[in-house]
Each structure stands twice: as C-alpha cells, then as structure tokens.
Amino acid sequence: MDLLKPSRANSCPLTPLTFLERAATVYGDCPSIVYNTTTTTTTFTWSQTHRRCLQLASSLSSLGIERGHVISVIAPNTPPMYELHFAVPMSGAILNTLNTRLDSHTISVLLLHSQSKLLFFDHHFQPLVLRAISMFPPNIPSPKLVLITDHHDHAPSPSPSLDDDTYEGLVERGDSGFNWIRPKSEWDPIILNYTSGTTSSPKGVVHCHRAIFIMTLDSLIDWSVPKQPVFLWTLPMFHSNGWCFPWAMAVVGGTNICLRKIDPPQIYNSINQNHVTHMCGAPVILNMLSNCSNSEPLRNPVHFLTGGSPPPATLLRRVESLGFVVTHGFGMTELAGVVISCAWKRKWNRLPAEERARLKARQGVRTAAATTEVDVVDPVSGKSVERDGLTVGEIVVRGGSVMLGYLKDPEATSKCLRENGWLYTGDVAVMHPDGYLEIKDRSKDIIITGGENVSSVEVEAVLYSHPAVNEAAVVARPDEFWGETPCAFVSLKKQNERVSEEEVIEFCRDRLPHYMVPRTVVVVEEELPKTSTGKIQKGLLRDNAKAMGSLRQASRL
C-alpha cells in the first residue's frame, strides 16, 4: 500500500473552543449558567453564552490583544470567570487564572513574570489588585485593568486609577459575528497556570489546545458524565482551570451553577433547588458538607470528584451516607486535570464499609485517554517498582495531557520532563498487586491544604527571617477540616528566649498568603534533629506532627 500522508482535511488543529459552537447549536435554548446574587438570579442559555464570548473576544481584539498575549483574571466562580475560559483564547490570547488567595506581592510577581497585557478582576479584589499594580517597576507598563461587577448588586465605585472599561461594557460593544482566532497549530498555548504562587521562582505551567481538548473529553469519559448534567461549581475555576470542566460542560450541554463563595448551607440549598448532579473539589469541601449543622440525606445522589490528599475513610463513610457518590483521583497543574482515578469495580460494593473506603482512598489507575502510561519507578534506576503495595517509588506519567513546559524556566522543565520521555511528578507512591497505585509521600515536601499546594521551602524562608529563629522545618499535620495544614518546628537562637506559637503565626500571616501560614508551631528547646550529613530529619518531624493527631477546630486562616 502506498504511504498516505496527512492533509488539510484531516489535520485541522484540535481545540476545546469548538465545543462552545456545538453547544450553541445542539443545546442553544438550554441553560448554560445559573448565578444567584443577593438580589437576583442570572440565567444564560448556551446560545447566549456563545454570543457573549464572541462579543468579548471581539472587544479584546479591538483593544490590541494579539495571538500569544497573556490575559489574566482574578475572580471567584461567577459567570464572567466561566465565559473567559472561551472568550480569551477566542481572541488568540492565553488565559491566566490567578489564585484568589494570593497576596498582592505574589500577584504582582506573577503579572510581571507572565507579561500580562490585561487583567480582569472582580470588584471584591479591587484593593488587592491596586496594591499589586503599585508594586510594578516604573519602567515596566502594568496590564490594562478591567473591572468585573455584579451589576445588579452594590459594588464599589471604580478607583480613579482604573481604566474606563468594564467587563459588561466590553461584552455589550463587541461583535457577535466575530470570526474568532483559531490556533495555527494545536500545539499553540491556550492557558498559563502558576503551580503554587511562589514569589522567588514562579513556575508557570503552559498547556496547548491539544492537551486541553484531550483532557476535557477524557474527564467526561472517565467520570461517566451524561448529557446535560447540572454542575455545581465548588472547585475554584482558577485551580487548574477547574480540572477542564468549564470546557467539558459545553461538550455535554451541562448547566453551570456558579457560587461566589463556599458556604455549606448555600451549597445544600443550591443542590436541592437546582437538582445538582455533579460537583468537584478538595476533601475539605466534603468535610465542610459532612459537618454542616443542617446536613441531611440528599433527595437524589450527587457525584463528587475529589483530589488532593486522600480523604480519610471516616469522612468517605459520612458523606456517602448523605448521598454523595465520591470518586477519588490524582492530577497536577502540569497534567491539566485528573489523570489517575480510582476506577470502581462492582464486586467491591459487597465489601464492608471500612474496606470500601480504604480502596476508594487510593489514587487508582490511569484514565482512558489523557495519559498513555502511568508507572511508579525507582527514582535512581528508572525501573518499575514491585507491585507489592510496599515498595515506594516516584509516579511518572506520559501522554496527551502533559504540559508543554514551564514558562521561561528551561531548567525546571528539564527536571520535570526527562529525556526518557516521562514527566516526573515528585509524588512518592506504591503500586498494589492489582495495578492500583497509592500515594505515600511527596518528595517535593509539598503540603496540600484545602486543595492548594504549599511549598514548605517558602514557609521556612519566612520563618528563618524571624529574628529569634535559628532553624525551621515545615511538614504536614493531619487536619480534619483542610486535609492537612503546615506544621512548623523551630529552634531559637537563644535558648532562654521566649517566643510563643501565636507570635510566630502572626509573623507569618504578615508575610504569606493565609493558607500557607502554619496552624501549628512547635518551639524546640535545643536544635532540630539532623542526619549524619547535617540535614534536618523531616521524616522524623512528619512522624511527630502525625502523632499530634488531627486538628479538629475550623481554621482561623
């Protein structure tokens, strides 16, 4: 047979933006977004969402936004945040969603690093944004600012330093017949996400249209999402773009129920009022729902996809008794979403509740489409570990959802994307005899609190800046509310010096985003335990933190 070659007809670039066009055709008169404010309910159909995104993309182009420019947004889960996932790349630009829990200095650093041309921001974050912009060097232009308001609710008047454009103003004056900017190649970047908001060396993950297209469809297949689900947004859309579910809901014509903040009574009310079928979020959301004073069994089952630190078996039992059907998975910003999930076997339904919960807490197996291969390997030899549930190794992944790399950081990219063709995750796990993997530790010392990554190195750097601190080490302590929280062990420069736990916490609160602040501080009378080579024994400190037991009270942060 003669060798056949690709043609223009069979090699057009894959992009998730085409999902919105299809949704407008198939589900045009069906609800796309429902958003309740204190005074009104806003509802859009899929044809309206499609038109609004085209109009916004048109206005962005008229402002001089070009292919490859970065547009940032800092906003909660509101309709504009959803629409920007389509409108920004439709203008040819790259979408950069910023963590709303970051401080002004970190936001300033990330805007500078990304060379963002425009920043959409919700009116609640106006003071934060203005502080961040004020930190720009005088010789570097700051991004154009566009205010997002709930126009039916009371919002602060724009500051005189703000530009005149508002979000709704850009939508209203845009062209609904705009011929949106299609990618030249499916490898063109579509999103930029920062992994942990680090202030010293930001790691900006860049994904292409192809990866998001694949990840979007894979998420729907792996979770068995039916047509026209009702999706409640309890997972922040800034967090790895809501694990690709903004684009996924367009594929199946789902209804996006947007919530400005996480409030358990409001979540239960929204579930019942809107007949919610699907939700995503960190285990902390499950914990909040299970501990809500007015929690009661749901009228209909709600499927809940969770990731991050494994939810405790007791928590899984509680939430499933309420009617939540929990699926546990593993993903990274570098992988665009959940690429390993605990695929459930029917025979497991016959097992005792404790055993079912133990199995469900495992991360599982690779998903169907996004990842070609997943393995647990010895970090030195690169060979697969024994499938005995005991031998630890590092999780490695390769496949269609893997990032292009870190923005402006070839060294970090090469450390993560190895020449042997694997992405090294830095997560330590075991492989069980049945082929399901389970995370045991994190080689990067990353603490996952409420679904957000905290670098222990960053927190330690702040602790070392305290005038009385001689040594510092930060590890994870179990927390019934957040999953785990930072626990700091410090020794003092002077043995007779007195520094209280509260003083150290307040010191950190003034210098870190609140979710990164230690909730526990242990002042050691002598020096911290060390190995024979002089390194602090973090493994021993982790054991000590674990022996303290789980924190039970709601967080002060």
TrEMBL record:
Domain named AMP-dependent synthetase/ligase: residues: 20-407
Signal peptide positions on this chain: none
InterPro entries noted in UniProt: AMP-bd_C (IPR025110), AMP-bd_C_sf (IPR045851), AMP-binding_CS (IPR020845), AMP-dep_synth/lig_dom (IPR000873), ANL_N_sf (IPR042099)
Swiss-Prot/TrEMBL GO biological process terms: phenylpropanoid metabolic process
Organism domain of life: Eukaryota
Pfam families: AMP-binding, AMP-binding_C
Domain AMP-binding enzyme C-terminal: 458-535
Keywords recorded for this protein, A-Z: Ligase, Phenylpropanoid metabolism
Pathway: Phytoalexin biosynthesis; 3,4',5-trihydroxystilbene biosynthesis; 3,4',5-trihydroxystilbene from trans-4-coumarate: step 1/2
UniProt GO molecular function: (E)-caffeate-CoA ligase activity
Family: Belongs to the ATP-dependent AMP-binding enzyme family.
Name used for this protein in its record: 4-coumarate--CoA ligase
